Amino acid sequence: MDKVVTCVAPVNIAVIKYWGKRDEHLILPLNDSVSLTLDCDQMHTKTSIIAGPLINEDSVWLNGQIMSIERNERLKKCFDLIRNLIKIQKGKNSQEEKWKIKVCSENNFPTAAGLASSAAGYACLVYTLANAFGLVNKDLPSIARQGSGSACRSIYGGFVQWTAGVDDQGYDSTAVQIAADTHWPEMRIIILVVNDSKKKTSSTVGMKQAVKTSELLKYRIQKCVPERTKEIIQAITDKNFEKFAEITMRDSNQFHAICLDTYPPCVYLNQVSHEIISFVHDYNEATGQVKVAYTFDAGPNAFLFIQQNDLSLFMSELVNVFPTVQPNSSYLRGIVSTLPNNI
Ligand code: PMV
Predict the structure, then answer these.
(1) Phi, psi (degrees; rounded to nearest 5) at 32
(2) Does the beta carbon of 146 lie inside 6 Å of ligand 1?
(3) For residue 207, how far is its CA from the centre of ligand 1 (angstroms)?
(4) Would you say the CB of residue 13 lies under 6 angstroms from ligand 1?
(5) Whole-structure pTM value
(6) What family is this (predicted)?
(7) pLDDT at 342
């Protein structure tokens, strides 16, 4: 009897960035990170799988193109880990771990453009496979992590922390929900797609180079992240927007400073990204309060955080300064997203 399941997983946006691994193979990070998971109605991956005794080989299609599982170590690892879990949870007599699986996955937004596509992609793959085989959820963040680190955070909705852990095998490196999506209903995320082409330096390569060459990265891990993580969790718990916003912007700026401190440097922001940063600071200064925050992943696209009451005034200013923010623009597109649901 074939199993057919479709799931949708949203992207997550880090406010304390993960950058740097202590173990490349198990994908164990050097530092804790914190993120917000978007609503499934917005940027997401949709994955369908069919598995059964009559399927003759594993195959994965992404956005209409077949991927080589053999040449993609992380994809292969996720399949192996899921099969291992089937063996553990279903017992030796189950034949299901031998079944072949066909996967068809699509992103409704640009892939590999610094918009967290791999986070949604691997979270969705692992979650869909687990659903198809009726697997218990507690191991899923660890499996998704081994596809793409930040994917472990997309397993949960709301506000999520990925604890780096200290264990060599990574048993304590997993995602936990800090607060549910309903905790801060006024929070909104605006995504400004500045450039949706594929990034020049992948996160994997950028991080590896940073670990090898950046002095600033060592300082960040030891001196900044532990305190910041505690503070931002407190700000989220208290719904203290100003505090949340300041830590978010500082952390994004420090992450991109590390990218520049990497040798040779990794440049992810462009002129428009810098204009957005200035615009947000000018706006906050003019209002006399911190009303808006920005963060940028490994790409030039901006993620802005704002509370519902401040949204319409800010959007009208934004459209004034960046007229091309109107829908259908290929230069800068704005999507207003509400926060979030679980998959
Ligand atoms: O999970 P990866 O390998 O795509 O790395 C994600 C890195 C950042 O998006 C820049 C930061 C983060 O914590 O999501």
Answers:
(1) -65, 155
(2) no
(3) 9
(4) no
(5) 0.92
(6) Belongs to the diphosphomevalonate decarboxylase family.
(7) 39
